[in-house]
Amino acid sequence: xxxxxxxxxxxxxxxxxxxxxxxxxxxxxxxxxxxxxxxxxxxxxxxxxxxxxxxxxxxxxxxxxxxxxxxxxxxxxxxxxx
Length: 82
Known about the structure:
The structure is a single chain. The mean pLDDT is 84. The chain has strands at 9-12, 40-49, 54-59, 73-74. It starts with 8 loop residues before the first strand and ends in an 8-residue tail after the last strand. By secondary structure, it is mainly beta. A 4-stranded antiparallel beta sheet has the order 3-2-1-4, with no helix packed on it.
C-alpha cells in the first residue's frame, strides 16, 4: 500500500460493486464516490489515522467531501505523445 503526499497526482481506480476492497474494514466506497472512477485528482489533505493504521486522503476532485484510502488510487496514466 503506497502512501501519498499532499500535491501528488493520482488516478482513482475503476470502482465497481466490489467496493470493500478499495477501503478498510471500517471504511468503504459509497455510491456517490463511484462517479469519480478513472478520474485524476490531486491529494489536498493526507492524515494518518493511527487506529486504522493507514492514511486517509482528501482530494480536489470531490471538493474534499470524502475520505479515500490509498487502495482506491493508482499512479495516473501517462499521456502518449502523438
